[in-house]
Amino acid sequence: MQLLAVGLNHTTAPVALRERLAFAPEQLGTAVAAARNWFACADSKGGDEAAILSTCNRTELYAASNAAHPLDAGAQFLADFHKLNYAELRPHLYMLPQHDAVRHTFRVASGLDSMVLGETQILGQIKDAIRTADEAGGLGTYLHQLFQRSFSVAKEVRSTTEIGAHSVSMAAAAVRLSQRIFDKISEQHVLFIGAGEMIELCATHFAAQNPKSITVANRTMERGEALAHRFNGKAMRLAELGSQLQQYDIVISCTASSLPLIGLGMVERAIKARRHKPMFMVDLAVPRDIEPEVGRLNDVFLYTVDDLGKVVQTGMENRQAAVAQAEAIIETRVQSFMHWIDDRAVVPVIQGLQENGEAIRLMELERARKLLAKGESADAVLEALSKGLTAKFMHGPQQALHRAQGDERAQLAELLPQLFRGRR
After folding, report:
1. How are beta strands 2-9 and 58-65 bridged, if at all?
2. Could you tell me the pTM of the whole model?
3. Which strands sit side by side in the sheet containing 49-54, from one edge to the other?
4. How far is CA 216 from CA 87, 162, 194, 195, 222, in A?
5. Candidates 41, 56, 202, 254; catalytic one
6. What is the pLDDT of residue 9?
7. Percentage of the chain with pLDDT > 90?
8. What is the pLDDT of residues 384-419, one digit of tens each?
9. What share of the chain is helix, strand, coil (3-state, %, to 5)?
10. CB–CB of 260/291 below 8 Å?
11. How many CA atoms lie less than 13 Å away from 374 in the CB half-sphere?
12. Which H or E run includes 133?
């Protein structure tokens, strides 16, 4: 079995491509099963494992497979599932085998591969992805062990380094950008579309600026009301966006919708009703919630998740020491995991030796019982039993030594005495 990771992220692909490769939450279970079947059709001997992580910044397939060319199979699967041209997608993909895949997994879990260095949200997203993969039957010994260790590594990195001490969250970056447009957030009306973790984080940051009003628009009214209540705001349904959008100066959206919720025409009507008063919009969703064409309007300042990523890169130099320390921890844990994989590789050999030894033991034991039944003395039977066991256990190594030649014989001559050295 070979571990692998195939995917793209914010450093290898623009949001326009990432949204085309993104998996909706309701697709993940089906996609995991489809990935396992895909490997099975690629000359796999069975037992393939798969898990898929899909966030606004990355889409990644993690797998364990014994297919002839598992990396190629994984990359082809991503293109085929989303009906994308493989030649167009391939330059943006990273295809990581075994050792590199393990290191990448640990780095992602620890926040070292995130747009916001050291952010903690990714760990929860990984746990959700693994839970879904497990429910879909995608996890086996290898991926289960890989991700359990990744959680331990992430905890160690965050508890022993200051990797997240200087991080600027996407939410804080959104506030900072909005302050370039509006002098006082306290005089603005803010609309949040969605009610997930990212929106909750953004609402917390904007609420600290005491805006004139806060509204949460969500598909599920009950969940929207619960979030709005925390910030003394109000809730509305997504269906009301078209008629209410003009009331808001700041709009932050992050939903799991597969299609845009806000189109160019909707925003044009809102701007006209606002008499061209500026509107600040942030689209943190992948796929995007707001049509890209909206950004061309003169009175709209539209930022995507990639735009905010550029803001959060400031202060990187303050984190380099923590990064180096975290990378050292990860490298040590990668070596430990690779040692576990190497041990797994010899498990069948050990099982074979144990089964062979057990067969020899039972054969000699049966022979001893027959001798006892014939009236042979216990000492004579024990003597015969010990000699029989010794002869059979030594037969294989002696035959191998006789058949070997040259360097192979020299290696066996050096190794066999170590293997059969008895305890004293």
Report:
1. antiparallel
2. 0.76
3. 49-54, 58-65, 2-9, 94-97
4. 41, 34, 7, 7, 11
5. 56
6. 96
7. 66
8. 888 888 888 788 888 888 888 888 888 878 887 877
9. 60, 15, 25
10. yes
11. 9
12. helix 121-135
4 with 74: CB under 8 angstroms? yes
158 neighbors 206 (Cβ within 8 angstroms): no
d(CA 123, CA 111): 8
Query: Which candidate, 5, 8, 66, places its Cα nearest to that of 39?
Result: 66
pLDDT of residue 415: 81
Q: In 10 A of CB 87, how many CB atoms? A: 8
The span from the CA of 71 to the CA of 6, in Å, is: 7
Tell me the one-letter amino acid at 343.
D
202 is catalytic: no
- At 27, the amino acid letter reads Q
The three-state secondary structure class of 271 is helix
Residue 316, pLDDT > 70, answer no
Tens digit of each residue's pLDDT (9 = 90 or more) over 349-380:
777 778 888 888 888 888 889 888 888 888 88
User: Which strands form 250-253's sheet, in the order they lie side by side?
Assistant: 234-237, 213-218, 189-193, 250-253, 279-283, 300-304
